[in-house]
Sequence to fold (183 residues):
Amino acid sequence: MSGDVLSICMNLMKKPRAAVPLLLAGSALLCVGIPALAATPKVGKWSGTTSFTYSQLGIPTVAPVDTRFSTVRARGGARRVKRFTLGRLKLIDCTPRQAGPYGGGGFVSHAAPKVRNGHFHITETTRSGASRYTLKVRGRFTSRGRSKGTLTYMVVKPGVTCTTGGEMHWSATLGGHPPSTTK
Fold:
């Protein structure tokens, strides 16, 4: 058996082009395990901001909005995202147009999705009287202390629908920074 390995190695040294596919296959196998290790977030409190432009409406305003959430250790060592909170924001993409802008009061998600391969997803709808509030969040942990993703927020009131006008991008860090004072 060791003679076979030795002869293979000797042939690869004589023909370096033959070694390329083997090296590529070996490096691909090594890279498969890396994302799962790098994407496991630390347990703690995260905070950050999101900013978006009202480009669909031709308004170049950038509005920072605070985001907060916690990561906790679940059964078996897995992580869960808890209490994803979106701060106050103005929704100006409303139907009918004369209805906007609508000052949203923020949203606190009570879902606790598991982090799978460094990613999480939340879709939650709550009701208050005749109004319906929907938050959709997609996120990923880019390292043990950093995360980013996209979200959409929609408010439906009788006769009026307001949204963020598309996806907002957000980022957060473990420990984060103090919330902004802009509203």
Notes: The CA atoms of residues 18 and 27 lie 15 Å apart. The first helix runs from residue 2 to 14. The chain is about 20% helix and 45% strand. Confidence is low (pLDDT under 50) at residues 28-38, 178-183.
